[in-house]
């Protein structure tokens, strides 16, 4: 695929054409930054969610799950700080009339400088070969040192304006860096302003008596307010975790890049309650554990990197992001945060109820610290999907479009294809194979077009296996199974199909790579 912009356009187009993601309310020209998951998309999304849940909850004796309500008492959001401080710094370009997040403009500018450094390193590596010492090059090369100083200076100023919420200085930083609008190319910027991101709504039978509520902007608070309920009813001992998946809502003023940033999205979060003083050890543990989970899917180690936060949230004493190489560059996929005891203490203060843990070993009450892992399910979907979409040159000078989804996540595991659709015996046997396999796997039946075209269609749909039933199948109960990624074909017994497919798509087989 020619370049990143072209690839991203093809990702969006392919997602619609093959029934993964549709624009919401498309018959009414759609709703900005809101999307529907189609028949294949909902299966891929479910499989990602299940893969996370099994690794996080099922495989950990000390982690349990809950499903908290979207509506919460409004004081929840006062206690959490969202009412007063859940804002984005936004800036408009007067010529294009486009609105941008000020921090993202600066971060993207900084990222371009980093890419220049990486290009210099790659060129030098190619030039010097095995004799190349990357550490020495980075510490001595004039261009690299100059650009790294630029990055460090930008980071320092960005951290300063964010910590002090100095909006005038934020605009000045953008002007000093000479950042232009990606659309108009001009530097004609408005002042930076803060916008609260929460959606408001009302609860009640009449306008006069209705209570003001918010759609939750995150799922974490539902876990915190249920900490003591879960701990007591589950007889949980610290350290233990509470996991949750569910919808959250943010009034993103600048929502773009397809499903990467939406107004209605789904999170997969786990809050791990620990003894104060042990947060450094657990922060390191969950950084390593979460990266291993991502790597188990085989999307490529080079596509991930950690980004340690220079500016910490007011409640955190350590924070890092697992960033993924999307078609539009490295962006946050998952956050790991050491939240200290801020959340539980805030809810104690605002509710008047104690949210403490009695440690029988220490014979003492204390407010636990919290280690959080939080991943966007929609972003994970986009990471998997965009990484999987490939165009391959074949030996016969043709190309094929293939969606190389991890087999464990693929919506459909196998397609059963009768070689001749008018042959009733082949159709009957094909349907019998489906009836047997569908108890264990999601399978489909495809009889339209020549078998080669059907292979290409299933490749583009991400189906790991195609099973062709032909005349020989009627004689000896064998079929041809074709592997999506290699296009290799094998003749196997029908009775062996279940075991062959299971080996390739079984969650255990994939998670054991961790």
| CATH level-3 fold name of the domain at 87-196 | Herpes Virus-1
* Main beta sheet strand tally, sense and closure: 7 strands, mixed
- Count of extended strands: 23
Strand content: 15-25%
Q: What percentage of residues falls in helices of 4 or more residues? A: 40-55%
Strand order of the largest sheet: 3-9-10-16-13-12-11
- How does the overall form come out from the CA principal axes? globular
What's the CATH architecture of the domain at 87-196? 2-Layer Sandwich
Total of helices: 18
- At the first level of CATH, the class of the domain at 87-196 is Alpha Beta
Structural class: alpha+beta
Radius of gyration: 26 Å
For the structure shown, list the relevant keywords.
single chain; 514 residues; alpha+beta; Herpes Virus-1; Rossmann fold; seven-stranded mixed sheet; five-stranded mixed sheet; 18 helices; 40% helix; 24% strand
Structural write-up:
The chain has 514 residues and is of the alpha+beta class. Among the domains are: 87-196, Herpes Virus-1 (2-Layer Sandwich); 412-511, 3-Layer(aba) Sandwich (Rossmann fold), CATH 3.40.50.800. It contains 18 helices and 23 strands. The strands form seven sheets. It has a seven-stranded mixed β-sheet with strand order 3-9-10-16-13-12-11. Strands 20-19-21-22-23 form a five-stranded mixed β-sheet, with helices on both faces. β7 (200-203) and β8 (211-214) form a beta hairpin.
């Amino acid at each position: 695929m020619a370049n990143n912009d072209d690839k991203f356009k093809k990702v969006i187009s392919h997602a619609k054409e093959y029934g993964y993601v549709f624009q919401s309310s498309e018959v009414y020209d759609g709703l900005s930054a809101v999307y529907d998951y189609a028949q294949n998309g909902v299966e891929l999304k479910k499989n990602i969610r299940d893969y996370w849940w099994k690794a996080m909850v099922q495989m950990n004796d000390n982690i349990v799950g809950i499903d908290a309500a979207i509506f919460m008492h409004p004081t929840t959001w006062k206690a959490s700080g969202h009412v007063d401080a859940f804002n984005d710094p936004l800036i408009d370009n007067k010529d294009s009339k486009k609105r941008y997040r000020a921090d993202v403009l600066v971060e993207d500018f900084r990222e371009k400088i980093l890419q220049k450094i990486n290009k210099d390193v790659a060129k030098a590596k190619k030039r010097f070969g095995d004799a190349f010492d990357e550490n020495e090059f980075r510490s001595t090369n004039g261009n690299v040192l100059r650009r790294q100083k630029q990055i460090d200076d930008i980071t320092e100023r960005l951290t300063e304006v964010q910590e002090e919420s100095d909006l005038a200085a934020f605009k000045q930083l953008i002007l000093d860096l000479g950042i232009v609008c990606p659309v108009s190319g001009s530097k004609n910027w408005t002042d930076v302003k803060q916008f609260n991101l929460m959606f408001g709504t009302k609860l009640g039978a009449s306008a006069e008596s209705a209570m003001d509520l918010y759609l939750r902007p995150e799922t974490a608070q539902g876990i915190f307010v249920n900490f003591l309920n879960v701990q007591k009813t589950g007889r949980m001992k610290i350290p233990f975790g509470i996991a949750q998946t569910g919808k959250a809502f943010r009034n993103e003023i600048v929502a773009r890049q397809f499903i990467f940033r939406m107004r209605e999205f789904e999170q997969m979060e786990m809050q791990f309650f620990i003894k104060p003083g042990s947060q450094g050890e657990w922060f390191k543990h969950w950084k390593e554990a979460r990266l291993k989970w991502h790597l188990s899917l085989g999307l490529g180690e080079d596509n991930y990197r950690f980004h340690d936060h220079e500016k910490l949230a007011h409640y955190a004493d350590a924070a890092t992001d697992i960033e993924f190489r999307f078609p539009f560059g490295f962006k946050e996929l998952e956050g790991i945060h050491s939240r200290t005891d801020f959340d539980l203490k805030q809810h104690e203060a605002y509710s008047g109820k104690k949210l403490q843990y009695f440690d029988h070993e220490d014979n003492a009450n204390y407010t636990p610290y919290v280690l959080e892992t939080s991943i966007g399910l929609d972003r994970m979907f986009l990471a998997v999907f965009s990484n999987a979409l490939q165009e391959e040159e074949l030996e016969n000078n043709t190309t094929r479009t293939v969606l190389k989804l991890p087999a464990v996540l693929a919506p459909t595991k196998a397609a059963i294809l009768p070689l001749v659709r008018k042959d009733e015996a082949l159709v009957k046997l094909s349907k019998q194979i489906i009836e047997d396999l569908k108890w264990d796997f999601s399978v489909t039946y495809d009889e339209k077009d020549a078998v080669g075209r059907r292979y290409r269609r299933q490749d583009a749909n991400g189906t790991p296996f195609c099973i062709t039933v032909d005349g020989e199948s009627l004689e000896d109960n064998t079929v041809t199974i074709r592997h999506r990624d290699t296009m290799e074909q094998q003749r196997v017994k029908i009775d062996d199909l279940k075991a062959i497919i299971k080996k390739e798509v079984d969650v255990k087989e994939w998670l054991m790579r961790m």
